[in-house]
Amino acid sequence: MKKIHFDTILSTNAFLKEHHRELADFFLVSTTHQTEGRGRLGRLWNDDRHSALFSILIKNDIPVDLIDRIPLVAITSVHKVLSHYVPRILIKWPNDIIMTEKKLVGVLVESVFEGAALQGVVVGFGINVNNLTFPEDIVVKSTSLAIETERSYDIDALIDEIAKTFQAEFQIWRSGNDDFLKYCNRFSSLVGRSITFYRDNQEYKGKAGLMALDGSLSVSTSEGQIYIRSGEVSLSDNRELPVK
Ligand code: BTN
Fold it and tell me: Confidence class of residue 238 from pLDDT cuts 50, 70 and 90?
């Protein structure tokens, strides 16, 4: 896998989107610091130089109708690697990893189109690794590997391990194996729990079910079973679930 590292960059996702034409399949860009790191739902992704911040460009073998599965393949890969270092981490739909209800990892998948033609997909990973503090607005909902395990990590080695695992998981998926879905549901933080979510600016409550192959989350509501495809859910209860 070819790669490049920048000390500082606007955003690793933005870099790959801009340079996709001249870069190879599975090109990796990492950085120590982003000045305009981006999160899902148009949010910013702040860093303090202690996180693993990287993006991978996928150019080959991506059927447009299956793009929605890529976040789950990516989050499966990160979960498999981080589980070697930290126990009891869970996958929170649609593409976070949490521990003790706090966020450890976020993934941002963006498609690159020219006209109607898909040129590639950029998979961006933000992993709280050696962070010991967080900005006030996110401190209660964020954690890091260092906080959870009281040791520090070699961020470059971790990125390499996750990138290799992601490439392998991607190839397994493309060869026709959808086991990533079972994996995500096995480690789901939401299944069976009461959740609140918004749809068309309206608040809904329901009980979260399993994630589906298309990346959606099934929810039982008073209006029946629905599938939510985007957005964010929050827990209506505070019950800690045992890890399966
Ligand atoms: C989220 O949870 O909202 C997704 C966060 C993704 C952040 C990563 S950091 C590296 C890559 N470059 C970006 O600008 N964003 C992703």
Answer: low
Question: Which residues have C-beta atoms less than 6 Å from ligand 1?
Answer: 11-13, 34, 37-40, 43, 45, 53, 55, 96, 106-108, 124-126
Q: What is the pTM of this model?
A: 0.94
Report the pLDDT value the prediction gives residue 46, as an integer from 0 to 100: 87
The reply to whether 103 and 121 lie within a common domain is yes
Shared domain check, 163 and 198: no
- Range(s) of the domain holding residue 212: 194-235
Of ligand 1's atoms, which has the minimum distance to the CA of residue 40? 3
Predicted confidence (pLDDT) per residue in 45-92, tens digit: 989 999 999 999 999 989 999 999 999 999 999 999 999 999 999 999
213 contacts 178 by C-beta, under 8 angstroms: yes
Could you give the angle at the alpha carbon of 173 between the alpha carbons of 61 and 159, nearest 5°? 90
Q: What is the Cα–Cα distance from 96 to 126, expressed in whole angstroms? A: 10
Domain count of the chain? 2
Measure the CA–CA gap between 193 and 198, rounded to whole angstroms: 16
* Ligand 1 geometric centre to CA of 122 (Å): 11
**What's residue 231's pLDDT?**
81
Q: Same domain, yes or no, for 127 and 214?
A: no
CA separation for the pair 84, 161 (Å, rounded): 11
CATH number of the domain residue 11 falls in: 3.30.930.10
